[in-house]
Amino acid sequence: MTIMGRLRADLVCGIGLLTRLPVEWLAHDGLPYSMTRSIWCWPLVGAGLGACGGLLYAGLLWLGIAALPAAGWSIGVLLLACGGLHEDGLADMADGCGGGRDRARKLEIMRDSRVGSYGVMALVVALLVRVSALAAMPGAVAIMAMPVAGALARMAMAGVLWRLPPARADGLASSMAGAPGHALAAGAGLAGLCAAVLLPWPRAALACAVAAGAAVIMCLFARRQLGGQTGDVLGATAVVAECAILAALS
Questions:
Q1: In whole angstroms, what is the distance from residue 96 CA to residue 128 CA?
Q2: Which of 82, 114, 119, 150 has the smallest CB count inside 10 Å?
């Protein structure tokens, strides 16, 4: 297979994994899809989603919509595009870590599809932070900040996957253990390049530092609470990192 074919396969896999966007028309039988190898393109997917959200926000402001409802609609569209995938992980992790007495019970709660009080509170805070942070930005700033936040948040998620072992033997995250180093390096480079190109140097450095800090905190927290990472931990990391980055850039 050609290099371009392999890269396209990774991109299709990354989009299909992180969003609910239809990618069947890009896929062809026989392509060697690999979720772990697709890590390099996760920041690209996040940047693309963020760019759409930022453009929508700026467009609504241009049409005369007030900043707060414009931000709410923009974040809502991003949730729709991703199917609330990361938010579901945040809610599950909040319920498990908030309600479980030991690791086994916490992991058991996280498997439950029902959302408890801890999950609801985490979702409310996450949505409030993102909407209010976006509403505090002019449209031109949001167009630059949203892709950076999306890219760095997905890279933070990849960093947690790389640093932590699976917390359980089954599940999606366990099948993605052992991410290739070159894929991680490429993803980190793309995320850093996105920040450097779209933001002034001090703000780009701030965004990268905040993303790295969020990843480290989530690593330490997940290791202590669960003994490793799960798909819910990865989703929660993406949400926490994005909230922190947008708050810092606002």
A1: 22
A2: 114
